[in-house]
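Predict structure. Chain length: 313.
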Amino acid sequence: MNKSSENSFIVTQEYRRFTEFCDACRRYRYIGLCYGPPGVGKTLSARRYSQWDQVEAYASFQTSAPVIDEVLGSDTVFYTPNVLNGPGHILRDMDRLRRRLLHIAWGALYCEEESRIIEARHRHDEYWDSYMVEAKWLSLPPGSSIPEPEPSLYEIRKEYSAKRDAMVDPTRLLLIDEADRLKMASLEQMRAIFDQGSLGLVLLGMPGLEKRLARYPQLYSRVGFVHEFRPLCVAEVRLLLERHWQPPEVRQALNGITDEEVIVTIVRITGGNFRLLHRLLTQVARIMEINAATTVTRQVVEAARESLVIGSA
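Prediction complete.
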């Protein structure tokens, strides 16, 4: 997650409920269903929970400790299936994403290995220098070679190669966004992946997802938790505005959203839908920039509302 999106994210009560739900699915290794209307923050919350922005930005086998520390210990995969998603595609994508988490763990070992190698090289250089300066080689039996200091570079690399070979898949939870896209064969593939590993699985989608999956008894019988992702309540929308939250793309500070009439208007227009709040405030900032305004008024909010297409999605 980049710095702007990290700083713009405010932990809401709904996000806390979502993290508790995901933690339970991971702990008990159940399948969980999370459903809610579009725009309430399911995808944003899932990416935040899984640290997927940082994981995607990580390049395999980086040996920079600060970079690795940001993602080390990641054990959750976030996945959005393509519109066309056959079982083969699902299997390959899951393997690729789970190996990405494994490569992060490998990266930490590579970082530690390189540190050991550098120390060993310094120690070996000092050893050879002292051996030659003190002429210890003159006392060696004829035909014998100078002994290598321990551990050798070969032994260090062999040790860490064995550690990587012994490392198991760190994945403990799969978050599948847009699960409504999955056809029966792809859902069966997800069930097979779930059955083969000691992990939890969360399917995120639209309302009605739980009723649709109820038609697949083998999958539905494994469902342990169901979570409804609800829009923000009035108090949380008010809290966001009071904390001067604004979309990360907006450069102009939206100061002045303290007027009760303005807050009530924003709450009425958005209905607690996070995506709609994001779009509305973006339009508010655009109108204020055009008109060189410095304070958000009800008239500015209403003008921003007129430029939006507000529907069920």
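Summary: Residues 3-106+167-228 form a domain with the Rossmann fold fold (CATH 3.40.50.300).
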